[in-house]
Amino acid sequence: MTTQRTLKTAKKNARPVRESTRAEKAENTRNTLLDAAVKIVGRLGYQGASIANITAHAKVAQGTFYNYFESRQDILDQLLPIMGRQMTEYIKSRMDPDTHGVEREKQRITLYFEFLAEHPWFHRLVNEAETMAPKAHKVYFKHVSEGYIRSLTRSLERGEIKGYTVEQLEAIAYMLMSTRTYLAQRYAFSSRGAVKPVPANVISTYVDVISRALYR
Amino acid sequence: MTTQRTLKTAKKNARPVRESTRAEKAENTRNTLLDAAVKIVGRLGYQGASIANITAHAKVAQGTFYNYFESRQDILDQLLPIMGRQMTEYIKSRMDPDTHGVEREKQRITLYFEFLAEHPWFHRLVNEAETMAPKAHKVYFKHVSEGYIRSLTRSLERGEIKGYTVEQLEAIAYMLMSTRTYLAQRYAFSSRGAVKPVPANVISTYVDVISRALYR
Amino acid sequence: MTTQRTLKTAKKNARPVRESTRAEKAENTRNTLLDAAVKIVGRLGYQGASIANITAHAKVAQGTFYNYFESRQDILDQLLPIMGRQMTEYIKSRMDPDTHGVEREKQRITLYFEFLAEHPWFHRLVNEAETMAPKAHKVYFKHVSEGYIRSLTRSLERGEIKGYTVEQLEAIAYMLMSTRTYLAQRYAFSSRGAVKPVPANVISTYVDVISRALYR
Amino acid sequence: MTTQRTLKTAKKNARPVRESTRAEKAENTRNTLLDAAVKIVGRLGYQGASIANITAHAKVAQGTFYNYFESRQDILDQLLPIMGRQMTEYIKSRMDPDTHGVEREKQRITLYFEFLAEHPWFHRLVNEAETMAPKAHKVYFKHVSEGYIRSLTRSLERGEIKGYTVEQLEAIAYMLMSTRTYLAQRYAFSSRGAVKPVPANVISTYVDVISRALYR
DNA sequence: AATGAATGAGAGTTCATTCAT
DNA sequence: GATGAATGAACTCTCATTCAT
């Protein structure tokens, strides 16, 4: 997920022409810690993300942690923004620009489920954040809802969406966000934490509903 | 949630009208603890609901707690079912039986927001439960979704809802549940935890969407 | 192990000619508690013998306990004397009075192992008592060693045991007591707490040693 | 039991002769904790060896304990092996290699009592271990009995011990172990916990018995 | 005499954070 | 900048004992 220096720092030609800069190294450690934190929160939840756990995973001493983050809460607050951006980029980069109307919504939710399948801990990261990292959660929601609203606004302007005013779009955005989250929760995760594909008829129901509600 | 007279009134007119203070007191203590727990989870989250906190609030010794609950998790698992039942009963008892169609949905979400206004901690109780009391959360969702599905099925049979099969109703139920939750989160709570009324145009947007999606 | 009232108190002929006296009932409860304590210490050790455990087993309320015993330590201190007496009586009552010399020792240790087989918790009761009920332990050891010494004195007087003075008998008694305890510990108990018969050759080695040391 | 220099002296003459204070200090803390535990178990029994007690005695914070031991049981399990080794080494190192026959036994038990006089808590450590640290107890007994058996086997081979087969030696070893333990318990400790010398005639009785039983 | 709810001290353990090296 | 030992408050839970009923 981040700059990862190759493990072999190449001991060859011992006189170092230029060994990785201090800044680089530091950045490296920082990212290692973030990576570790993301993995652990995904696996064990925020609760399980103790400093001991994170630093052990990152293979640095506990003390090192505090050279990069002010507190435990500090790093927890950074996780969701990072992963959230990654999620939205995942979807954005894979959306077909030529698809329009409700088909875009179908694509969007399908890609969302796809992302969840690849990053199963993401759902947990978001959900628990409301409690464990409220600031991060707020930022994340703002980020995602704004993306939604932008998209809906364009559809409205293009005349694909009919019968709503711009002022109503925010509420609608929240409805779409909530919907995909709950559908994932209900249909994408089995009791034992494993991920399974969301049934096609669930997706098509979603599309039906959205289509009638917005695009008709 | 509050004092419930014991079923067995027993001891067919033994001396005092006043019977079995022992059992009453015990039931009282139990309810005091549950009340305290609900309040604290609402205010500080499940995390903050330590035994020390709960018992202090209930003004009993820490040891007393374990006369009524097996463990901390035990009481946490009981909170959502209790409050969930209370919530659904609140709504059910206030629904006008003569209202039909999308108006019922409007009534339902309005009552839901009303309930939240009276029990602001309820939202937190539900949300965190997914992590902190997963079993309770699962039960709660089953309970609520089943209610929704029953209601939707009737509307479908009456011909108010058109264009969907019975199989699609579960997914739709989850969409409705999620929607009201996220709208509450976004519009009912101010940043400082206070509750505010959900704007009328948000509700009417919700009604518009549902109306077009289902009742037309 | 104690007076045990029959369970059925015979509800027949309801007018009580004479329902068990108060004193009887009390004695009964007391013994029930002692029985429960013995069983629990045998199964779980002194540590596991909590008041809650004992009273639950005896089917009385916790408070009742303190009508019969001053404290937890009080009852623990009574267990070993009771069981110790039972053990010595078990052996004494089964010893063949016509057996003499080292054969008596063989009989004694065999009966001891037999008693352990029937009361496997006895070994634990004695061993832990040194720590958990030191007073009781001291009394028990005095009791058992005095019995041994009496017996050895008679053998000495009869001329079966040769080469020792009366003053040496106490030390010898302790050697015999210790020996049978350790042999039981090593050979009578399997790792999973079960009891198994002590191998014949262990017993015969014991007899050889004792025979040469004392009776020759 | 005390400071053990780390094996790796490492850093081939880097600047200071004084190396790695870090590791030394740590080792120190560890030993302080072990020492404290040994003393407390000796004085108050395993029961009294609470973390609070141990750390207070060692003058470190309670949390520090868990930097060195996984759990309370962990340290308790380590005490007997450590002290047991110390005991056997104490005796072995002081045994006169030129002494043979029953005189060796006399020397052995005398040294045992001597060790107990110097480490009065040892007896308690061993005795309670059967309950409080069963694994450690098993290991200790194996260790000690094997030493005994080796020694007895040699005596048998040299012809000092007569009339027994190798198979009988284990039982005999247990008899010797048990004997010295019980004699110590009876004669070395006064009621108020103080240690007193075992009377000479007790030792000579022991020697008489062993001599006749084995060496004649 | 019997009850069992209430008590509160104390148990083992975890963990974010600090700081001398 | 990196280390990791030390800290101590806070956690959940147990239990002998008391006492009003």
The ordered H/E elements of chain A are: HHHHHHHHH
CATH topology-level name of the largest domain in chain A: Tetracycline Repressor, domain 2
Largest interface: A-B, 37 and 38 residues
Largest sheet of chain A, described in full?
Answer: none
CATH 4th-level superfamily of the largest domain in chain A: Tetracycline Repressor, domain 2
Helix content of chain A: over 70%
- Number-wise, the strands of chain A total 0
Q: In CATH terms, what is the architecture of the largest domain in chain A? A: Orthogonal Bundle
Structural class of chain A: mainly alpha
Nearest-angstrom radius of gyration of chain A? 21 Å
Any idea what the shape of chain A is?
elongated
Oligomer: homotetramer
Instruction: Indicate the proportion of strand residues of chain A.
Output: under 5%
How many helical elements of chain A?
9
Separation of termini of chain A?
41 Å
Count of separate structural domains of chain A? 2
